[in-house]
Amino acid sequence: MMDWENQYGSRVHELRTKMVFFLMFIEIKASPAHSTAALIVDEPEETDPWDLPELKDAGVPWSALDTKGKVLRVLISVGKLILLLGFLYMFVCSLDILSSAFQLVGGKTAGDIFQDNEILSNPLAGLVIGVLVTLLVQSSSTSSSIVVNTSMHRKLIMMLTVQVAVPIIMGTNIGTSVTNTLVAMTQAGERNTFRRAFAGATVHDFFNWLSVLVLLPLEVASGYLFVVTKLITDSFEIQSGEAPDLLNVITDPLTESIIELDASVISGIATDDPEAKNKSLIKRWCQTFTNTTLMNVTVPGPENCTSPSLCWVDGNYTFTLKNISQIYNIKKCTHLFVDVNLSDMAVGLILLALSLLVLCSCLILIVKLLNSMLKGQVAVVIKKVLNTNFPFPFGWVTGYIAILVGAGMTFIVQSSSVFTSAITPLVGIGVISIERAYPLCLGSNIGTTTTAILAAMASPGETLADALQIALVHFLFNISGIILWYPIPFTRVPIRLAKGLGNITGKYRWFAVVYIICCFFVLPLLIFALSLAGWKVLVGVGVPLLIMLIIIIVINILQKRKPGWLPAVLRSWDFLPLWAHSLAPCDKAVGVLIAKCCCCCKCCQAASDDQEDRAEQLENNKTTHTAVYDNHAMSVENEAEDGMKIELNILKMTTL
């Protein structure tokens, strides 16, 4: 017995010791510090792309500068401010030239459209014409805007009855919002910046479309806008006045040195004046004198006389007295194209290309300057002032103050397009949140209508009442839209729609071009064609499409909030082909098309950036998975090393 214990006792003790350390090793492996869950918890949380980014100041703090450095920084800041104001001035002027270019390209077409009152009597056709004409001539109902040539627009509207003009006013409200959407396209270089900028621009689009979607059927059914504005105009004593002319004083010297247009030509075409059709829109003589003389003229017969008492016959000739006006050219214009022997279309295309080039260049430079200026404490102060709400219980007042600020700024610059285009890059770089940009855009809509009201009061006495009523229709339309889509937070649907579209365009930047083409051209033309085909065709095609759209929206909402209410097959769209519920196949096709056909270096660089972003994302995912398996809790190699260390410790202990 003693021999057995002597022979095997040490071996049993060795095995027992190894077993104890083996159990300790298993406990170490099972500890939370070595678990995969701990690794997942330690990963950084994903940031919200709609959070305003921190504008970091990489420069030397002010307190660390000496006197020379402080003076130099002040001079640089003043220089940047002067450059910023200069680029803003060029930006506004380029928008004005862009308006003139669109009028030269499509102004006569716009005049021809307004001749057909039978088409305009159809509310949907009138709405679409308002959109398309605004796109052609870059004109809204802003009567004194420097970008919108509303003197011409107002004359065109005056040829129509007020009831016919109401849908056109709604259409111009939609068409004028395309400008800031195009401005957002210039920020497509950086994904998150483009996401915010495009959402900040399209929130204006969605407000206008949703307002029309509700108020146009209401107007057709009840005449709500016409009746209310008629009561207002009848209750006041209207006197003529003069429209304000604020920013034009600053911009006209430059824009009029480049091009001047004769807006009376378009209004002449709209009134079917045969002489106007052969005239050029380019103004040649800036100062003329009209001499009106009572003269004897020959007419075909007595029925053509101005009055029986002023009519006499001499043989085969009939004479009467008429006022004959003769125009004498006194002073020629001095703009660049006054003596150019080119057609209106050619001049318009030249100005269109140049104005777009200047506009995009100025916008890019403005964004760069704002990025360099809005840093450190300056950025903190500006963001805090623009985005902070009043303390409880007055937080709700902040949005309405933003509406007043937007209205006031638009009244000063006399253009909603200029104001909304100016705040779009600020939304993109993260200075203004989309929640604050929304009430500013609503205020801009109000500001543009107050300018129209003042300008309408400068109309001649015979058209003053109708002009004021149409301006009030525009004002009441925007006020009604604000009541529908702003006061209650859950009714602020345009913000949610704009963010959803921003997420899509942030992932697939090419979709922004598709949105602009479909929303401002394809959809209006489709509605226009259906409305011309008659109410039966419009109802037969439009109602099923509208019902299908409503069903899809309801299913999407239920999929996100109450999926249990839906059948199993409708809880996702996976039962459809991939192309029917995802843009990924289209994205691949666009990527291949760009790779093969794109000759522009900038477009190629944008495509390569997309590929680099995706490759970087895949690499990060791969690195994350590798890090998980390289951890001591998961790696086989490290397990073997830990086991060898334990075996060595066991051997040392057994040796002792």
UniProtKB/TrEMBL annotation:
GO CC term, one of those recorded: vesicle
Topology with respect to the bilayer: Multi-pass membrane protein
Domain of life: Eukaryota
Record bears the keyword Hydrolase: no
Alphabetical list of InterPro entries matching this protein: Na/Pi_transpt
Keyword annotations: Cell membrane, Ion transport, Membrane, Sodium, Sodium transport, Transmembrane, Transmembrane helix, Transport
GO MF: sodium:phosphate symporter activity
Keyword flag Flavoprotein: no
Principal cellular location given in the protein's record: membrane
Cell location: Apical cell membrane
BP terms from Gene Ontology: intracellular phosphate ion homeostasis; sodium-dependent phosphate transport
TM region(s), chain numbering: 20-41, 71-98, 119-137, 157-185, 206-227, 345-370, 390-413, 467-488, 508-531, 537-558
Family statement drawn from the similarity comment of this UniProt entry: Belongs to the SLC34A transporter family.
NCBIfam families tied to this protein: 2a58
Record's protein name: Solute carrier family 34 member 2a
Source organism of the structure: Astatotilapia calliptera (Eastern happy)
